[in-house]
Design a protein that fits this description.
With 45 residues, this protein is mainly α. The protein is 84% helix and 0% strand.
């Protein structure tokens, strides 16, 4: 049987892991967008 404290700690660890994964996804998305923005700002010719 899992104690209430252990359940809370496992929930907190899962929440932090999910937040970290979301932050990684957002960072990767921004890094992928960055070169596109740079290309759009270059003058033609």
């Amino acid at each position: 049987m899992i104690s209430e404290w252990m359940k809370i700690m496992l929930d907190e660890m899962a929440r932090k892991a999910a937040e970290a994964e979301q932050a990684r996804l957002e960072r990767d998305r921004r890094l992928e967008e960055r070169p596109q923005r740079r290309d759009e700002q270059r003058p033609n010719g």
